[in-house]
Amino acid sequence: MCGIVGYAGNRDSSTVLVDGLKKLEYRGYDSAGIAVFENGVIKVVKAKGRLNDLEEKMQETGVPQGHCGIGHTRWATHGEPSDVNSHPHGSKTLSIVHNGIIENYLELKEKLIRKGYTFDSETDTEVVAKLLDYYYKGDPKAAVLRVIQAVKGSYALGMIFKDYPDVIFAVRKDSPLIVGLGEGENFIASDIPAILKYTRNYYLIEENELVELTKDKVTVYNLDLEPVEKEVYTADWDMEAAEKGGYPHFMLKEIYEQPEAFRKTVSPRLKDGLPDLEFSGALTPAFIRSIEKIHIVACGTAMHAGLIGKNVIEALGRIPTEVAIASEFRYCDPILGKNDLVVIVSQSGETADTLAALRLAKSRGVPVLALVNVVGSSIAREADCVLYTWAGPEIAVASTKAFTVQMALFYLLAIEFARVRGELTDAGAASYCGKLMEIPDRMQEVLQNSEDCKYFASKFQNAENLFFIGRGLDYALSQEGSLKLKEISYIHSEAYAAGELKHGTISLITDQVPVVALATQSHLFEKTRSNIKEVVTRGAKVLLVAAEDMISKNEETKYVLAVPSVGDLFMPLLAIIPLQLFAYYTAVLRGCDVDKPRNLAKSVTVE
Ligand code: AGP
Q1: Which of 46, 351, 463, 543 has its CA 20 to 30 A from that of 291?
Q2: What mean pLDDT do residues 446-458 have?
């Protein structure tokens, strides 16, 4: 996820662009840049780092002087944060900024290289810029139409052409884009915060609408280049609310971003219906076939994603898989075999214990695959192979969308490992991949029932202690549900294997002790129901989270959260959402600082 802005008007465009980018830093902040028409020439300044690094560079190289330009603040997906990978990208003819992921950029890059183009960066965006240059014959709109026919993936593009000074072109597919409407000035932006300082009036640009913008005129075209009438919206948000997209907290916004994050992480990794994982180095099919054991190592929520990963890898790939807490793994002199694989999971890619675990594994000569959300982070750089989650920046300390896309990568790995090792036929693998692609729509259905979660949170908000119980995948997921509740609502909670309760802990279940029972696994439902009966007869107040096709069997509890049935194996990808919302609304009701819980940091870079 990145932030793009554009301005045409009478103000100093460099100031307006940098101001706007500052309001979009929540969309990405590892590098930034602007391109401005200065005396009819496009002047580009861009730098790795935060916006103040860009401002320093502008002071060194000269602030572009003009009244029209485009800008970008980056969240790296292809190519680590660096000056050369930062946007804008372009040619002698044009300059562009891009938010999104171009899935077929390598194929297009090869074609352009054969046509004599050279590339400076590792980005998919530079490929779009050079493709636009290739198709440009003097008519920007015609060139844009050719580009959007050729590219696959998501994009919001801001573009300027040397031959058209003080004119901005823009187009979008799957990534957001608005047009800000001012007096003698107009804007493009990824989101409203970038324009609020200047205007509250805007157009929402729809899929494959093409914008041509000057300081005095905005024309929106359809793909037949026919002008389109647009409704003017007026933003009534204050700045802070706008940065959260109108949500009260980043955490809620990121919970609702999960369907999009899931699509962006999974769909570029499916080719002809099968996993297409950019394995590099050690992870050859021969090595995959030789793997004798997998060690998943992480902390906190990332470790919980590993628990789901263990279940699905063993279920499909039949590879013995262990999950280790990184701070334990690094000091326990782990037993690692020469045919083992270590999978390191980290949203930030900077967690000290997890990085240490990676280094230990590498010191033993064991190949390391990392699942990371931050491109170019320490863990990403030191792993033998990296699969990035494309969740975009996760601002809230409590991890939600990053967790879900970490799970998504584990499902893809499990399917691919199973296929390569002959545990699944191609048809079987394709069937599972088809299931994965249904998930974002099912997630949307779950998100529409958030009022139920708010209601149940109100019933449990005063709990001092709370139990999460489940079996199999439900037990694994209950550990993430428990952590979410603990870390933002400060209620002490504990995840327990439902079948294990009677071996001691059930002594704590007395009248009105709250229990969240996960029962999404149809093959274990009756067993979990027995455990629910055990706690209900001892007075527990139970919230049942179950697949909707199992709910009719429930007789024990009045509080029930139904989740669409997508098959036992895939239920964690949906059941996590009510648990996140339950924790969120409980924390809000308890007046907690949801986005910045006490004592916590987004990235624990110390032991
Ligand atoms: C998640 O809600 C917590 N903030 C925390 O457990 C986090 O998952 C853990 O610190 C690991 O962080 P990482 O994924 O960046 O390595």
Answers
A1: 351
A2: 94
